[in-house]
Amino acid sequence: MQHFSLLLGPHAKGSIGGILTTANVKGRGVIKVKPIPAYTNTPGQATQRANWKAIVALWHGALYLPADKTAFNTKATRTRRGLSGWNVFVSIYRTAFAAGLTLTSLTEITAVKNVADLDVDGLSNDAGNVKISIYSTTGSFITSSDVAVAVGAFTDTFLGADVPLKGFVGCEPSAVGEGGASGWYAYDLT
What predicted TM-score, i.e. pTM, was given to this entire model? Predict the structure, then answer.
């Protein structure tokens, strides 16, 4: 409805009392009843809200230490420029939720020199196989291995000839029906 109000003027914009909305359309002042959005709670929306709540709780829970969050930031800067570690984490776990996978958290990854080899250790909140990957300092994939994991600690050894002196370690579940990933943890064998 077009309005000709001396109080509002022809160029008024905004809401009045949360009930009416004014705008300028093609140079004319227009006023209309503000629409009230319907809050629907379809099963799909309820699932999305529950998934989001679980992802936030997972990130802020006791599993993810500052070092784990730093590893996700490293992964973000090396693989998905412009995103934060939080964005990468949400992307990984949201995809796993959407696919109906069991969420696997891989945390506290360490890579240490053992004579001339690289020992990789970490924690998993679920049993299954874990793929451990080694990346160069530029983010290029070098090698990987699969290890069977019980709930709790896991470990694997990479031969020194197979890995660069400096790089990153990342892990992800490789068992069918599981989803998730770790960030990238830096190591230095020099």
Answer: 0.74
Longest pairwise C-alpha distance within the chain: 85
| Distance in angstroms (rounded) separating the CA atoms of residues 187 and 185 | 7
CATH annotation of 49-188: 2.60.40.4070
The whole-number average pLDDT for the span 119-130 is: 89
SS3 187: strand
Cβ neighbours of residue 92 under 8 Å, at least 6 residues apart?
Answer: 179, 180, 181
What secondary structure letter does DSSP report for 162? G
Cα–Cα dist 104/46, whole Å: 22
* b (16+ CB within 10 A) / e for 40-66: eeeeeeeeeeebeeebeebbeeeebee
Identify the H or E element spanning 78: helix 66-79
